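Lecture notes, part 5. Sequence design as translation. It can be helpful to think of inverse folding as translation between two languages: the language of shapes and the language of residues. The source text, in structure tokens, appears below.
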């Protein structure tokens, strides 16, 4: 029997934020958030809505089976109207539960080197080309990085990432990082990942030998749109870095940034490229405009649009960890818990690189309230 604009999905969302209200009027189920209608499930929906509901369900069955959906099916999801927003979230949540249950991967990062980057990524406050306050590099000491790892362990976070600004790292920096990775694993028992820019297969191999588990390098957007955002290196350079890390059997964390002027087509193109690369985790960042950067005046994405993007990515990448990272607090505000109903199964907790995040303790409480289980390696 057909599930219609998923009243069960809306019921599942009841109570996740005190601002949510669910009511019925003339046979219609309406969902409100802060006084604004988020969706309506009509008992007398038209044939078009019913057809779309069936189409979402049919596509979901492919994803639930672990099959790859094609471009035509993806385009149908992109075209889903507001009247079926609840259906999209319902099936995205079903796909998440099918492959990940109630487990949520929680990661924290430390900026090992911050700012002073000579690249020109238009969204990034760390570029020395922009007047965003990070023109000179700031490098954390060994003691500061180890202290951050110790704090992550104390907070119950088992996945710890070291992030370096810049296009790449020097031989001296690589040696230092290999030593730190060994100490962190031996002293704290954490899973260590790194984001060090463009690397070679030889460098990736050395990091893996030191105990590195995963490597992060984002595509940021589609190949078509990349040149509008970055000109100091090529899209292919990023793909090559991912493949180099894969040669060393490192788990790949690669995703992108949304809200930088890209289209739905760009978003889908990036998702398909990530699927082709076979990445393990897709970090989903949502622009937090920083004054002084070329995108400092960009309009933030609406929370509902963010949830739609997450849900579509879950259909495309059913078995891949979707980690909501930068911009979560600023852009989703009181709707942060909704990301799991949209299909996400991972979060970056604590502060980000140049912007404040949310305290790990608060995120852990959110997961507890939702009866979700932080994933421990």
């Amino acid at each position: 029997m057909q599930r219609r604009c998923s009243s069960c999905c809306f019921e599942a969302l009841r109570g996740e934020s005190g601002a949510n209200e669910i009511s019925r009027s003339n046979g219609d189920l309406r969902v409100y958030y802060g006084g604004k209608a988020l969706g309506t499930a009509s008992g007398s929906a038209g044939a078009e809505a019913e057809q779309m509901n069936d189409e979402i369900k049919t596509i979901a069955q492919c994803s639930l089976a672990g099959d790859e959906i094609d471009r035509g099916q993806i385009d149908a999801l992109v075209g889903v109207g507001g009247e079926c927003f609840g259906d999209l979230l319902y099936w995205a949540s079903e796909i998440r539960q099918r492959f990940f249950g109630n487990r949520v991967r929680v990661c924290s990062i430390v900026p090992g080197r911050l700012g002073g980057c000579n690249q020109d990524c238009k969204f990034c406050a760390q570029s020395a080309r922009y007047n965003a306050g990070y023109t000179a590099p700031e490098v954390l000491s060994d003691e500061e990085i180890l202290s951050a790892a110790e704090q992550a362990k104390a907070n119950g976070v088992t996945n710890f990432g070291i992030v370096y600004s810049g296009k790449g790292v020097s031989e001296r920096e690589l040696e230092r990082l290999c030593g730190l990775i060994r100490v962190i694993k031996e002293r704290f028992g954490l899973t260590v990942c790194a984001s060090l820019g463009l690397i070679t297969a030889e460098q990736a191999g050395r990091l893996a030998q030191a105990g590195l588990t995963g490597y992060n390098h984002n595509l940021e957007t589609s190949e078509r749109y990349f040149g509008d955002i970055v000109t100091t290196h090529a899209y292919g350079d990023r793909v090559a870095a991912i493949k180099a890390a894969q040669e060393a059997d490192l788990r790949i964390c690669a995703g992108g940034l949304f809200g930088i002027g890209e289209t739905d087509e760009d978003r889908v193109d990036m998702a398909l490229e990530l699927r082709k690369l076979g990445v393990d985790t897709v970090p989903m960042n949502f622009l937090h405009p920083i004054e002084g950067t070329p995108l400092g005046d960009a309009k933030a994405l609406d929370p509902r649009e963010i949830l739609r993007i997450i849900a579509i990515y879950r259909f495309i990448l059913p078995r891949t960890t979707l980690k909501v990272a930068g911009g979560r607090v600023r852009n989703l505000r009181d709707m942060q818990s909704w990301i799991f109903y949209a299909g996400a199964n991972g979060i970056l907790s604590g502060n980000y690189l140049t912007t404040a995040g949310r305290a790990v303790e608060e995120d852990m409480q959110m997961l507890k309230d939702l009866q979700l289980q932080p994933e421990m390696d």
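The translated text above is only one of many valid answers, since several sequences can fold into similar shapes. The chain has 13 helices and 14 strands.
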